[in-house]
Structure formats: C-alpha cells, structure tokens
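Pentatricopeptide repeat-containing protein
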Amino acid sequence: MEAFLLGPSTRFRHPITALPKSPTLRAVYTNPSPSFRVGVRCGLRDGPRKPLWRGRVLSKEAIQAVQALKLAKSSPSASANSRTDGDDKMAEVFRGKIARLLKADLLDVLKELQRQNEWGIALQVFTFIKKEAWYKPDLSLYSDMIMMMGKNKLIENAENLFVEIEKEGVLPDTRAFTEIIGAFLQVGNVDKAMHMYNLMKNSGCNPDKLTFTILVRNLEKAGEEDLAISVRRDCKQYIDSPEKFLQELDKEYPKRRSIKLV
C-alpha cells in the first residue's frame, strides 16, 4: 500500500476517529524496544503501480503541473548557488501552477508523483496540500506517503509521517499501521516492525490479511521463525478462514513451509 482517487464531490475515504486524551500513541511509539537490524529484501507490494490515468484521466492543468515540478527539480544551473536557484524555481511553480489547481487536480498531482516515485516533490506537494483551506486530516493520504517512503527506504520520513498523524488529531487505522510495519521491514528493522504490530493490536486496530502477508513473508525471510509462527497463530483471532488464508499464502510463496495453527 492502493490507488487513492478523489472525485470533486468526494471528501475523505476513511472515517476519522477522535483522538483520546490519554494515553497518547505518540508517547508509546517514541519509546520502542531496541532495534535489531537484519537484511530483509521485501516490498510493501509486488509489481509496478498502475498508472493513475487507468482510473481517472488527469486534467491538462494537472499534467502541466507535474511536468513543471519535475522540470524545476532537474533544471541545470551553472552558478555556484544552483541549489538555491533550483529552490527558487520550485517555489515559483508552487506560487503559480500549483496554487491555481482545483482540489481534485492537486490530489491527482500528488498521486501521479507517487506513481512516478518522485518522493521529494511529493513531500513538498503534500505539505502544500495540508496548508489548503479545504484540507482535513486524511489517513489515506498519510498511508500513501508512508508507503512511498518505505518503498524508498526513507525510514525517518516514514516515522515522521506516522507520528504526524496523531499531531493532526486522529488515530492510525489498519492501513497506516500496516504501511509503517512494512517500512520498518524494508530496512530490516524487525524489532520496530514487531513493536508497531503489538501497538496496533493493543490500540484496538485489527490487523488484516495484508498485514499478516507482509509480516509472515518478511519474518520468514529474516529467519525469525518463532515470530513468524506467533504471527501465523494470530491469524486465527483476526481473520476468517485462517487455515485457508495461510495455505494460499504458502502456495503463492512456496518457499514458506506450512505451520499448523494450534
């Protein structure tokens, strides 16, 4: 985690849950167990992401905005202050083309930048979106951004985005937790991935099939058999037909050996 498409009349995809006063997730999250790093080769999703225009045609304004942002980013400069010049050109694009975009087009620009894996520009656009008058905290936007940071192994950015969710006054949902778990596994940090998994369950947010797929696959790749067995057993509590799900998982990834639930 996938596609996030917002029509002009659609406001938000996920319901917003009010933030309890105490205890805060941030207080728990900022004191995780010590990190244990292990090389894990994994992705949050397999295969390329589908082009945005398969679900919705980008407007001419959105296409031009994406092109202008990428041009400003890559614009060469012979001066010693090339970075400053590049920042000035990017700021000019934001003051011009980006500022004139309608809500739907602006969200489309963000999605297209994510599809093209332009994570640096996407972060700037996301920051711009959060300053818009119409903006309200949207977990799907955060989840998409966390997934993008995890894909690029930018774990500090992913962590900051996750913590920022609570600062917005909302609680992470299943997908947000799943994406941050996947991000930690991307960089081989099994301890923090399991910490977030336990925090997810303790907060009353139920893991789903995607959560279990990401955890089981990567724990087994990392040689963490005991943890993998424990997560497999959790399937019995959280999903329907757990044996069937695990059989399908083992069939899709045949290197995994089947472990019976008890």
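thats it. Confidence is low (pLDDT under 50) at residues 1-23, 33-43, 48-54. The radius of gyration is 20 Å. bye
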